[in-house]
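Lecture notes, unit on binding sites. The following record was shown on slide 14. It pairs a sequence with iron/sulfur cluster.
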Amino acid sequence: MMNIKKRKARAEQVMAVLKDRYPDSDCTLESGKDAWKLLEMTRLAAQCTDKRVNEVSIGLFRKYPTPESMANADICELEEIVRPCGLYHMKAKDLRESSRQIAYEYGGRVPDTMEELLKLSGVGRKIANLILGDIYGKPGIVSDTHCIRISKRLGLTDTTDPRKNEEQLSEIIPVEERAVFCHRLVDFGREICRAAHPLCDGCPFREFNCTKEK
Ligand code: SF4
């Protein structure tokens, strides 16, 4: 991997290009910036598209509009609603349990520290960083599949391990840029730097000699 000075210089270049290209990047989960809804929707998004999660969430939050109501959901009914998102046994269980924790252990408010967020059922660092960055304005690297793949291809990192990717990007991305940088990587990954068949010929970073690993 390049030394940190070169990685920082490259990161600045990448941030500038992506900012220009995707000035309004934001989370594509339509939670209305409601912390609890975003948390549960992000859980549903594992191995599912954001589009489907948005569709399913309309009926989900109509039936369970508060953490209390979801905490007391009939598990079979909840499973049936989230079934289109896949892994529905586990997801329904996590949704009910995390809603119970938020409703009865945190007074209805989603906590705003990494330590507390990680105690919620089904919540890992990726979800926690998204909540911290998008809801509470705290620096967080959302180390998802796009972020890991693209930052490695661009030479900003050298790992596919989510935690190490987060650490390596935290060394070179300024705190105030972290949340939006990750959203921009998602947009860039969907449009150009796709997992299979990246569109390198028309890419603004084609001179970087990227590795083409997925
Ligand atoms: S040149 Fe290809 S691999 Fe590199 S960032 Fe662009 S699309 Fe991705």
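Take-home: The chain has two domains: 4-26+140-208, 35-124.
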